[in-house]
Specification:
- The protein is 26% helix and 34% strand.
- With 65 residues, it is an alpha+beta fold.
- A hairpin with a 5-residue loop joins strand 1 and strand 2.
- The chain is globular, with a radius of gyration of 11 Å.
Amino acid sequence: MATVWVYIDPEGVEKGRSEPFGDRQAAEDWMALAWEDLLNQGFAEAALTDLEDGSTIYRMGLGPG
């Protein structure tokens, strides 16, 4: 399943996307390294999205609770 991270600003608006990943594990491994940089760029959340059907696999906050 090909996936992509969708970057979401504090108002809940999509503001960008990552490059596609070949599978969920690769996407999650990348996010483990990239989340802090994304937070520093002003993104509040990220949603892991299935590229085949556009569905959100899950959505997560990037900052403290």
